[in-house]
Amino acid sequence: MATVTVKLTNKVVGMSLIVPFSHAQGLQEYPAGHAKSGQLVVYRINKYEMVVNGATTYHVVRFGLQNKGTILPSRSADAGLTVKRTVQPSWVPGYSPHSFSGGPFAGAWRILPGQGFLIHEGANEALGQVGGSLGCVEVLGGKWPNFLNELKTVCGVNWPAIGAQGLMNLTIEAGSNPIATLV
Amino acid sequence: MSLMRTAILLLGSLSLMMLYAQQLEGPIETRVDQWQPVLPGKWTVSTKTFEAGHEQELRAASTQAGVSACPYPSLLFLRSYAPVKLGEPGCQFRTYRVSKNEYHIVARCRTLAGKDHDETTTLTVWNEGKAFSSATTWIEPKGSVTVRTEGAWLAACGKE
Fold first, then answer.
1. ipTM strictly over 0.85?
2. All domains of chain B in start order, with CATH
3. Which one of B75, B105, B117, B134 would you mutate to disrupt binding with A, by most A Cβ within 10 Å of its Cβ?
4. Record: contact A27-B88, CB cut-off 8 A
5. Number of domains in chain A
């Protein structure tokens, strides 16, 4: 049994596409009568590097946009963790935003006790997916299974045990809300 | 004679299925900002919605000129047509290129209510990406619903 270090950096490694989201309205779509009626409202936003044990890098979205019904050419991200901290995330079994029907990699990591910020599976851009984001850390590009498998391999125990025993040390670098640009 | 005809039909069907399977070699990449099945630009789009078993349209047909497919025309097709609110992950699309001009798109979307919603689309493109027709089908409790869409390219993307 060993600990694992995960570093969520503020290093921008490219751009990703996201859609504003709210728990009441869901993903934002262009309204009836608009030239893009029915299409998703898509913004381009920074994606960041997350590093496991100083070696393996993953690309993640860490800032999101709330769906407030407005459509602006650009807007500042208004969801996400900006303060520097080190925490031991807990395992949330069964959480399955993208691995439909509770696949073998369903689950997530709760970053702060009692709060909704998670590390979970993000959009697989190769499959045309553009997800909403409300400030969770979302592992992109279909690499979620790789990330989970690496944690298990390094720690030598399964994910619930990693969470229960506090084996993951997650360091979050401070970051400011980036500007998202409408596409 | 009848037996032979059946055998010929079966063999023919099998050949077609094998040909189809050969063509469906896994989903192609459909990155929103890279996949361009049709030209970006302004389009005239006509839509008709049908319910299974009814030839009459479920909703009045609509034609909209100036529909924007700028800058990413993929968003015309990488979407959900059903009147459902989408949850945070949205949809994954498994897209198969059946022939030079035809795609099959299988969409699996997570609704805001937390259920999975599936749609299938057949998309045919012609006139060098300046025209398309598509048919998208999904299942509702009362039966299947199909949206037929015709698109004709009008103009290139301008300054948005």
1. yes
2. 27-155 (2.40.160)
3. B75
4. yes
5. 1
